Structure formats: C-alpha cells, structure tokens
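Lab notebook, page 48
Experiment: co-folding of the full assembly
Goal: obtain a model of how the components sit together before planning crosslinking
Operator: M.T.
Materials (sequences as entered):
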Amino acid sequence: MAGRALSEIARLLNLPLKGEDVEIAGVNTLEGAGPHELSFLANPKYSDQLAATGAAAVIVRPEHAGDVRRALVSENPYRDFGRALALFAAPQGSWRGVSPLASVDPTASLAEDVTVYPFAFIGPRVVIGAGSVLFPGCYVGEDCRIGSGTTLYPNAVLMAGVEVGDGCIIHPGAVLGADGFGFARTAAGIEKIPQVGRVSLGDKVEVGANSAIDRAALDTTRVGSGTKIDNLVQIGHNVRIGQNSLIVSQTGVSGSTRIGDNCTLAGQVGVAGHLRIGDNVTLGPQAGVARDIPSNRVMGGSPAVDQGTYMRTLALMPRFPELFRRLSSVEKALAAQNAEHPKED
Amino acid sequence: MAGRALSEIARLLNLPLKGEDVEIAGVNTLEGAGPHELSFLANPKYSDQLAATGAAAVIVRPEHAGDVRRALVSENPYRDFGRALALFAAPQGSWRGVSPLASVDPTASLAEDVTVYPFAFIGPRVVIGAGSVLFPGCYVGEDCRIGSGTTLYPNAVLMAGVEVGDGCIIHPGAVLGADGFGFARTAAGIEKIPQVGRVSLGDKVEVGANSAIDRAALDTTRVGSGTKIDNLVQIGHNVRIGQNSLIVSQTGVSGSTRIGDNCTLAGQVGVAGHLRIGDNVTLGPQAGVARDIPSNRVMGGSPAVDQGTYMRTLALMPRFPELFRRLSSVEKALAAQNAEHPKED
Amino acid sequence: MAGRALSEIARLLNLPLKGEDVEIAGVNTLEGAGPHELSFLANPKYSDQLAATGAAAVIVRPEHAGDVRRALVSENPYRDFGRALALFAAPQGSWRGVSPLASVDPTASLAEDVTVYPFAFIGPRVVIGAGSVLFPGCYVGEDCRIGSGTTLYPNAVLMAGVEVGDGCIIHPGAVLGADGFGFARTAAGIEKIPQVGRVSLGDKVEVGANSAIDRAALDTTRVGSGTKIDNLVQIGHNVRIGQNSLIVSQTGVSGSTRIGDNCTLAGQVGVAGHLRIGDNVTLGPQAGVARDIPSNRVMGGSPAVDQGTYMRTLALMPRFPELFRRLSSVEKALAAQNAEHPKED
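Observation: model returned without errors.
Model output:
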C-alpha cells in the first residue's frame, strides 16, 4: 500500500477532518492499527476501544469525534471505511496488456485498454468493454459480451453467449452458462433435453469462487444489477434474480424460480424450482423453501416458516422428552382416577 | 441457429406433420415462440395456451393435433421437443483440430478427429476415442482413458488413471480422481492414507460444473452408464452409483456408499458412508441419509424417513406450541380434579 | 507400481516380518488381494477374512500374526498400511522441470528443484520452496509464498499474498484468497467493502477439490498445521482454524469464526459467523451451529445440540402423530369425567 495524507483521504471521501494532518500507510482494526493506520468505529458497542487504539485516525460518527486524536467524521463509518479501503487496496494483478500467451480469436472485439493475461481464451465474436481484465485460465466462449470495468479472475468460465454487464467481478473458478440439468426419463433410459438458452448478468454483479449459474433451457437465466453471489452457490436454469440481492455461500436455487430485489439468502439455503420469492425477503441459514414467499418476509427452517414461528418451534425442540414424560404422567393419573372412580356402564 | 423445413424436422423425428410446410428458425416456449419457431405442449394443464401461441408449429399429443395451425404429433412431446432442440443446438465451440497451443504428450494416443483446444494438457499414455472434444484448460492426467464422442468442457480435470466412457459430458471445472478424504488420527497428529485407486465412468454420464468425484482408496469409484450428476456434487472415494440415476446439485455421497439404478437424489441431499441404497429410490431435497434404504422407496427429511411419515411430521411441526398448551390445560384440569377428589391413601 | 521385497517393506516400516520373503507388487483389500499383494486387518470384526484372503502378506496386530501365511506385525495396522501404500503410490504426474509453456515472472524465486507444468502462472515476487510441484492451470498471484514439498494440483488458484506452508496439498480447482463476502447495504444499493487481507496455511494442510478459503477483510484467514479440508468446503473471511482438524466435504464456516485444534466437522455442516468453537469438538453431518461451543463436545442437529439430546430428539420425531393421538384421548377422557363429575362452582 502506498501512503496518502489523511487530509487527502478526507477530501476524497468528502468527510470533515478533526485533528492535524498525518501520513496514512494503510487501514486496520481498532485493535490492530498502528500509528500510521486509519481505523473505524461502526458499532457503538466497541466505543471503549477508542481510548486504547493506536490508530493515527479513526472514522467515527459525530458523537465520537472528540474521543480520538484525529477523526474523520461520518454518518456511516462502515461504508466510509470501505471507501477508504478502496483507496489502499492493491489490485490482484498489476500487469496490463494483452498477453501473446493468450488465445484471442481474430473476430473478437476488445476495447483498447482491456487486459488479457496468459492462458486466457477468448472465442469468436466476443465483445469486451473498456478496462475489463481477464486473468489466466479464463474461458470466454463464442458470442459472449462483457461490459466495461469487469474482472474475470483466474479460471472463470463463460460458456457461449453469456452476457456480463459493467463493473462485475467473476471470482476464480465460477462457471456461467453450463447446461441446465434437464432430462426426460424414457423407457430406454434418460434422454438429455438440450439446453440452448443463455445467462445474462446486469451491472455490478459479483459471482463467487466456484459458483455455477446454468444457462436457460430456452431463453435466459438472469441476475439483476447489484446482486452479489457468494462462493459455491448453484443457480439453476431459467432462474431470475432481481437487483441488490445477496446470495450467501453454498445456497442452491432450483430451476425456473424467481427471486425479487433486495433479498438475502443466508448460507446453505435451498430453494425448490418454479417458485416466486418476492422483494425484501430474508431466508435464514440452511432454510429449505418449497413454496412461494410474498415480499417483506423473514423465514427460517426447512421447510421454511415465518421466523417467529421457527424460533418458537426451535425453543420447544429440546423439550420433547419432557413432553412425553408429562403426557405419560397425565395418562397414569387418569388411569388411577378411573380405577378409583370407575365409569358406570 | 440455421433454419430447417418443418417437414424435414418431422421426418428426422419420425413424427406425423399436420398442416402445410414452413421454414423453422428455432425453438421456443408456447408464450415466447414467434412465426418461425417450433414449440411443444407437454403438460395438458397449459393446453389453453395453444390458442394464443404465435408458434409456427407445436409438438403435441394426438388429442391436441386439431388445436394448432401446424402440429407434429407425438406420444411424448417433451422428449421429442428435446430431440427437436438437438437439431438446432449450436455446439459450445465450433473450432476443430488439435491446437499447437495445447500440451499433448507424445505417448498419448488420440483418434484422428479428436479436438484439443489451446491450453489443454494431455499426459503420457492417455487414450482418447473418436470425436471427443477437450476445451481450454482441461487436464487429462497420466494413463487416463476417454471414450469416443465425449466432451470435456473448460477447466475439467481428470487426474491420473481416470476412465470416462463414450458420449459423456464433463462440465466446466469438474474434478474427477482427486484424492479421497482418508486420514488416520495418531498421537503425532493426522496421517494421510495415500489414495491410489481410480475413477471410472460408464457411457453417457454427465458430471456437472465444479462437481468432484474422488478416486478410490484402493480400487475404483464407479458411476454407471446414463447417470447424470448436476453441479457442485461431491462423490466420495469408493462410491458406486448404478445406471440412469439423477444426482441433483450440491448433493454429497460419502465414501464407500453404493447407490443403485434409476435413483433420484434431489438437491443438497447428504448420504453417509458405507451405506447401501437400492434401485428406484427417490430422496427429497436436503434429505439426510444415515441408514441403508431398500429399493423402490421415496424418502424425505433429515434423518430421512418414508416420505408419507415425513410429510405428516412436517404438518405437525407448527402445532408444537398448541401441543404444549393443551398438555398444560389437561394437567391443570387433573390437578383441579385431584384437589376436589383427593386420592385416599 | 514397481515391486519391492516384503523384507524391504518390513524394514522401511520398522515392523517385524513373520514368514518367508516374497516380492510385493502392490496393495489391496483382504478380499481383493492377489498372491503378490500386501493387505491389512484394522478392524477385528473382519478377522474371519484372514483365512480366505489370497494376499501374499497382511499387516496385523500381534494377536493375529499366526493367522496368516506372512504377517507384518503392527500396533496400528491402518496407519502402517497407509505407510505401505505410500511406498507404492505413483505420483499424479511424473514429469519434472519448469516448462517453457508456463508463465513465470522474472522476479519470482523458485528453489532449484521446483516443478512447474505447462500453463501454470506464477506472478511477481512469488517465492516457492524446494521440491514443490505446480500442475497445469495453477495460478499463483503476486507476492504469494509457498513452502517446500507442497503440491498445487491442476487449476488450483492462490490469489495475491496467499501463504502456504511446507508439505501442503492444494487439490484441483481449490481457490485460496478470493474476496470475502463483505458488503454494506446503503440507500443507493449495495457497496462492496474491499477485502485487502490474506490467507495463510500452516504445514501439512490439505485443501480439497473446488473448495474456497476467502482472504480476510483486513488481516489474515488462517488454517493451522495438519488440518485437512475436504472438497467443496467454504471457509469465510477472517476465519481461524486450529491444528489437526478435519473439515469434511460441503461444510461451510462463516466469517470471523474461530475453530480450535483436533476438531471434526462432518459433511454439509454449517457454522454461523463470529463464533468460537473450542478444541476436540465433533459436529455431526448437516449440523447447523449458531452458538459458541466449548471444547470436548460432540454435537448434532440444526441448530446443533448435545449429541445425546439430538439422538433422543430424533428417536421421538416419528412418534409425533402418536403424541397428538394420546393427548386427544386424554382430553376426551377428562371431558367425559367432567361430564360425570361436574365441578361444583
């Protein structure tokens, strides 16, 4: 990380600086930061760490500006810390150009400042926008379209016809546009239904390491702008996901399901096929979804139910042995009563 | 997609054509199809869409042949639509040959019309049959044998000694033949048990994107002909899977388990090690299997039980709070009775 | 496998040999072994197979040394069988050298006997220790450090700054050091929090095929020496895992969680973020962990509870319908009693 003046950081983030200027070499946690590092306080729970921090400066909310030697004053310290980080973040690779060790089809159209590392493969009629970077081992199949400012990390795979918007990040080993899982059982065995559709991502989409998004059977599997997909996630054929949704690691979404905007699917969630999930839906970890979910719901469990119901059910689970014991006691008491007061018939 | 006469499609699929001939440019859903596209009706539930479709022709069962302008009459419209799709499906890559940018060991034996893309690696003594295609970034380790008409998509990995039959598809990033997870805990820590076995696939097997099938500890991990494995599936060492089974995404099968023919394991299923699963077994999504399962069973839940039992248990789950309330009422009523009619002893 | 004298194997493993010498060509199960193969008996349950085995020799505990024609006598037959296997295990690739088809930055520092296969990429300032082997398609980003005797199998990815110790195995397609899943929701959408930390593995660590270990947001995601990670596992940013732990396939560990030494996480386990899991903790298959766990616990279920409680709860699950029936009977009996003995009020 190259150093920057704190005053310059304040100017770039458009935040008031309280305290004298200093050279900042990097960013760190309150606990770990040294005398040339910038830190932040997002959670007031940790405000007692402000007194002890060795940080040169801290991004804080206005009420904490007086608690540190130097403060950058922010209404959203976590977000502004992210922006500060971006000033110091080294890129994954510093090399620029189109390597003679890459394989680029002569009919592909690359904007002038596209970077293509060695051993990347770019097929016929591919179009790649300005400033995009393709790391080693990437495969970009025939007729793919990649926007500007997009990064394909090592060994990312875009099968034929995949479209990726601007400012996207495809993490290592992610596979976009492999065949959906479509088969017909017949008397003679299993016949493959050819998958001839595509995958299309909006802008600022991330796809995590070794995740897979299948091409549609006929039309298009779509992921909306701003949606972020974590590692090892499976998105089936014909799925449509809206904008600004978060799909956490190892989640699977089955074919033809639609998920709205601003949803959060926690880790290891499973969603069955052909469902409609609304906007602003949150699914807890390991949830299993087999029914449509309207907008603005928080659900948990497998099969998923309203989060409140799920939490109450969980609380009762360890009490099953007690339940059986109490029921047996009641039955015995009743039997004893009936022995004393036999029914007349 | 290049166009074809509808009459030619009828002839190739061996289906009667009702209506005059027309040029077909592609295939689509009933809703999406235009005046030069072929569609299909598989589910009679959607038969009311026949009146409104813009499709040039529709593959239908005999009873619906009169409902559309042009019909291809079929006993299995879904399967025949798949066959029609195959006529129009463009391959993932149109290039053919053995690239000088590939690394092919001189002792490897390739049939004359094998295609090897740039940056594919083929090790010593590998044998590859006629018409097989290896995309960029594939790795084929020493002594592997690949049949004819098989495709390895980008970055697929076959470790040493893996055997793949005819007509198989290994999707991008799939790994066949990595070490099984075999370790011995000792006082000194964990010692690796070397894994020296192999992986063998039958014919017409598919392995999904980023799935992993481990080599056996000593002998062979086997997947039978016609079995289709989806994305991000884990198959442990020494596992044997029969023919024409479907293993859906993110399922894991632990070491030494045997699974029969014509099984379906839905998404995110987990099967413990050293089990025997019979033929024609269906496991619902997220099922967890810790015991042997005889043939012809449908199971669900974790741990998996008979599907009927599972569905009944699920239906009762939301009623636990009610159960506790009702039991408390009974206990109070009994206590009140006993206060009125104290037991003589 | 090249043959070895049984007496030489006995000497190398430091085990007493009972019986005359013989040439051993390989290793196999008791059932499968032929007259030039070595086998083992680890589980006394299978001791009746000793009489029938065709093996040339068997590694057995002292009490079984008289039951076979030739015995290697061991206190830990499974571990010593592993050691015998290691004598016969062929490496995944026999080629050695630095391929002119690899891309090695001139500022990278490789010990003299490092092997780099074709199409591997090694970035600026990378340091690789003696005897390490990089298979085709590996990517080693800027400033990575790899110890000695470490293997990177095909298409393994080490993003910038990743550190891997001595004697590690990174299986095909594993990704170390991709961005953690860190985002801030704002009114304008989702903003990425840059991830600028690293991944560091100790010695003798294995990372399975297509697994992912994310770089820390700020500091370091750590995996301790001797820990073995299976295929398709997700390790989130800032996680710390101790030594000699086993993380089985398709498990996910969320960000900032710490796991101790000698733990075992079975397959498809999910662990939430920011938790502390002690030493010697065992989590059963598909467990879901949302709370801290002290050392020396065995837990199961989702949410995970003590294994005994989990097993008792599981045993009661199929009895829910019975529970509802019995409660209804009790309620009816009480109602009948009250009709006969009405409460005086």
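Interpretation: The helical segments of chain C are 6-13, 49-52, 77-88, 307-316, 320-340.
Next step: discuss with group before ordering constructs.
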